[in-house]
């Protein structure tokens, strides 16, 4: 296996591209991490709508970039060893596909491979309100060991900007991937007096 930690990042068309961009930027700060990225067609559209980052700029931050249509890509095979996958943001369509084993694109196939190989899979669902189908699909995935980390802001660290909120979410995602980080303040707990 590669000496680098291989992380697959799937980006779907749900709102929240800023979370994916921030995560990939932070991952590039770790020279021992290799980012394998794939965007759905709607993820590319949301990237244009929601951020100032171009697709070309985002791809340059990845070590490897794959077309969502390329079901023959390395990350579509369990024999290609990875250390985990994160889907950020995760659309309800993608979550439903993964929960049902329906791999109609590379994001779904890579997630299916991650599950079958019993590797770490993290999803960042971006939808509200949630209906019973959404909840049942996420419950099914949680029972399979998928970690579900919706972008819910924390206020104990007194965020001052949207970037503070996004950074806090990225901290949680890096924690889930067992990547030590300290760019965000953490809850220190109360002290006895």
TrEMBL record:
Tell me where on the tree of life, at the top rank, the source sits: Bacteria
Q: Which InterPro entries match?
A: Flavin_trans-like (IPR036551), Flavoprotein (IPR003382), UbiX-like (IPR004507)
The reply to whether Protein biosynthesis figures as a keyword in the UniProt entry is no
* Keywords attached to this entry: Flavoprotein, FMN, Prenyltransferase, Transferase
Does Transferase appear among the keywords?
Answer: yes
- Show the Pfam families listed in the entry: Flavoprotein
* Residue span, Flavoprotein domain: 5-171
Enumerate the residues binding dimethylallyl phosphate. Answer: 156, 172
Residue positions annotated to bind FMN are 13-15, 40, 91-94, 126
The reaction(s) annotated as catalysed by this protein in its Swiss-Prot or TrEMBL entry are: dimethylallyl phosphate + FMNH2 = prenylated FMNH2 + phosphate
Q: What is its EC number?
A: 2.5.1.129
Instruction: Supply the NCBIfam families for this chain.
Output: PRK06029.1 (NF004685), ubiX_pad (TIGR00421)
Q: What does this protein do?
A: Flavin prenyltransferase that catalyzes the synthesis of the prenylated FMN cofactor (prenyl-FMN) for 4-hydroxy-3-polyprenylbenzoic acid decarboxylase UbiD. The prenyltransferase is metal-independent and links a dimethylallyl moiety from dimethylallyl monophosphate (DMAP) to the flavin N5 and C6 atoms of FMN.
Family assignment from sequence similarity: Belongs to the UbiX/PAD1 family.
Which HAMAP family does the record cross-reference, listed alphabetically?
Answer: ubiX_pad
Name of the protein in question: Flavin prenyltransferase UbiX
Q: What is the lineage of its organism?
A: Bacteria, Bacillati, Bacillota, Bacilli, Lactobacillales
Q: Which gene name belongs to this protein?
A: ubiX
